[in-house]
TrEMBL record:
InterPro entries: NADP_DH_HndA-like, NuoE_N, Thioredoxin-like_sf. It comes from Paraburkholderia hospita. Its EC number is 1.2.1.2. This is Formate dehydrogenase subunit gamma. Keywords: Iron, Iron-sulfur, Metal-binding, Oxidoreductase. One of its GO terms (molecular function) is oxidoreductase activity. The keyword Metal-binding applies. The keyword Iron applies. It is an enzyme of class 1 (oxidoreductase). It holds the Pfam family 2Fe-2S_thioredx.
Length: 180
């Protein structure tokens, strides 16, 4: 006798509030749970839609993929791209590749950590900025480089970084052409 794969729909427990994110989870799971290797695309989809992978949904994700919570948590924590908390309103990525390192990126990274008051893979206390390392922005000839809200900036000095952060904090939404 062979075991049948578990097919389970997320259901409402009587008398309990249902998290509205479960509808999204159902949609994501429907497209990926039956596929080999479907967990990574599903997690990317959840994060793309919600901005992070909520820890309270890990148990449901694990059930739908017939995995343990530890396995799903292990995937989420192994890849630094996945977040378990919402990102800041702005994301600053500091290049950590060799070319940028050779031209002052470590000093720039230390300045960013000091200025924002948080380390890499963290968000400022006011929720304004998330600080992330990135390993090559393709601006090696113009190092050191950062990316702020998806916009690359080259030959960044601590002073230029301060101006970028000030403009980003003042403007909603951020416009890269306002800082040169």
């Amino acid at each position: 006798m062979t075991a049948k794969p578990r097919a389970r729909l997320l259901v409402k427990t009587p008398g309990k509030h249902v998290d509205p994110r479960w509808a999204l989870l159902r949609e994501v799971v429907a497209g990926h749970a039956a596929r080999p290797g479907g967990l990574l695309p599903a997690l990317h989809n959840v994060q793309d839609r919600l901005g992070f992978v909520p820890p309270e949904l890990i148990s449901e994700i694990a059930l739908e993929f017939n995995l343990s919570r530890a396995e799903v948590h292990g995937v989420i924590t192994f890849y630094p791209h996945f977040r378990s908390a919402p990102a800041g309103r702005h994301t600053l990525e500091v290049c950590r590749a060799e070319s940028c390192q050779a031209l002052g990126a470590e000093r720039l990274a230390e300045h960013a950590r000091s200025r924002l008051g948080c380390d890499f893979h963290a968000t400022t206390g006011d929720g304004a900025f998330s600080l992330e390392p990135v390993y090559c922005l393709g601006l090696c000839a113009q190092s050191p480089a950062v990316m702020l809200d998806g916009q690359p900036h080259a030959r960044v000095t601590p002073d230029k970084l301060d101006r970028l952060l000030d403009v980003a904090r003042e403007l909603e939404p951020y416009n890269a052409e306002d800082v040169q």
